[in-house]
Amino acid sequence: MPKRKVFFLSASDKLKLIREVESGKSVAEVSRAANVPISTLYRIVNKDKSKVESECATGQGKQKRVSTGEFPQLEKCLVEWMKDRRAENIPLSGTLIKQKGRSFAAQLDITDFNGSNGWLEGFKKRYDLVFKKICGESAVVDNDCCNQWISDLPMIIDQYSPDDIFNADETALFFRCIPSATFTFKGDPCHGGKLSKERVTLLLAASMSGKEKLPLLMIGKSKKPRCLRGVRTLPLNYKNNIKAWMTRDIFTDWLRSIDIHMRLNKRKILLFIDNCSAHTHLPQFENIKIIFLPPNTTSRLQPMDQGIIKNFKQLYRTEVVKLILQKIENHETVDITILAAMRLARRAWNDVKSATVANCFKKSGFKTAPGGEKAGGEPDLENVIASEEDWSRVLGDTSASVDLPSFEDYVSIDDEASVSGQSVDEEIVMQITQNAESEEEDDGSSDGKPSPSIQDATKAIETLQLFFEGNQCGPICFDRIHDLEKMILKAKKSRQTKMTDFFQ
């Protein structure tokens, strides 16, 4: 029997096979075309995907075999540290890398690492590192740079429809803060400590035309918040981080999901982002072209910073005010959990008007959105803020105090909170070594309520039906109720029948 020929696939070759399967081709079809055993292809697609994408992102895509080295965790920590330093334009020498390697070895309790020249050469080959001379200064940007960018912008976006031009940016949100605590929270940078459990980071992205707002991504501190116990469908996409802020890995995963979505819809988009450390050293994407805004210019050139984020926060804080008033009327305690914040944030994001988004793009130098939409250059804030009567009721007894927060104070309490930043060595080590399957964590909130049964949901639909029949409303209400009934029926069919069901 002839011996089977052995051949090796590089990480980039494997990534191409993964993308072909994701595009809709069958595993058998891709296996035959690439002359790769079907069992091997199944392993690459189902088990090795994240590893392959990571190798391609770190410049190892062309290597047939990637050696992990004798100290894999130490080298991963070192690579993350180097990415942060290069994002700050800090030059790195071989001596500095060896010294930092010894520092990480001490934190990881590795006693046999000496940081020799031989190890450094192997490390450079494993991660395809090349030391280059750094020329010039990039930190100083003036108005001339902004004006030049605005002048060049039409040529950059010329080949794309306004529906396919997006901007994405992060913002911090003190989701649990109620109006009475405004002055306690205001101006706190919130790098860590006890307030880190009181904040989340949200990633917002929308198109230049304003017609499409991508789903929100929320980043919290807890991996498994207690309030999410038993919840199978979240209102938002949720990730966690030890500081509840954006990281390079989280941002890359988000981009990858958007890229797959655009590929399935046969779209290619242009995405404008700032050059913070979490946005650097990104892999290439087939359907997303990334354009970085000039450094230190986002206050003028980033559409999200021209009013979209502020408009969203005004709507979110208004939803919080409504929730507090509802709790007051029902004589209940106000407890805004992560899950409640997701619901409020989704509602607020849906209420941001397309004209507001289009106006903010125009204010940043992007040409006017087509279709004759209103484009006054300012966000539409009509009916956004809470009324003076509601605001006074929420603040409660104001007779003993004269220094009261305004609604504008409440909206801006988290403007200075960090959304990303330089990770210290201890955090890098924790990210690399932490157990992926950590136990449920306490997020400072009470336990989540149990999920209602099918019968409870059906009775709630009947109550809604009676309510709308007894009040003046449009026929669309009954159409929506019918849609909800179909969704409940679908959920009922999807639940697996248990043995005990036959004895009830």
Task: Describe, in short, the structure shown.
The chain has helices spanning 11-22, 27-34, 38-46, 49-57, 72-87, 94-107, 117-126, 143-157, 182-185, 248-264, 298-301, 308-329, 338-351, 354-363, 388-395, 407-411, 425-433, 454-469, 476-494, and strands at 165-173, 200-207, 217-220, 237-240, 269-273, 288-292.
Structural notes for this entry:
The chain is an alpha/beta fold and 504 residues long. The protein is 44% helix and 7% strand. The protein is built from 19 helices and 6 strands. The chain has helices at 11-22, 27-34, 38-46, 49-57, 72-87, 94-107, 117-126, 143-157, 182-185, 248-264, 298-301, 308-329, 338-351, 354-363, 388-395, 407-411, 425-433, 454-469, 476-494; strands at residues 165-173, 200-207, 217-220, 237-240, 269-273, 288-292. The chain has a 6-stranded mixed sheet with strand order 4-3-2-1-5-6, with helices on one face. Helix 5 packs across helix 6 (94-107) and helix 18 (454-469) packs antiparallel against helix 19.
Biggest beta sheet attributes: 6 strands, mixed
* Alpha carbon gap, first and last residue: 62 Å
Please work out how many helical segments DSSP would assign: 19
Query: What amount of the residues lies in strands?
Result: 5-15%
Overall shape? globular
Task: Summarize the amount of helix as a percent range.
Answer: 40-55%
**Annotation, overall tally of beta strands:** 6
SS-based class: alpha/beta
Taking all Cα atoms into account, the compactness measure Rg is 26 Å
The helix-strand sequence is HHHHHHHHEHEEEHEEHHHHHHHHH
Strand order, biggest sheet? 4-3-2-1-5-6
* Poorly predicted parts: 132-141, 369-376, 435-440
- The mean pLDDT is 77
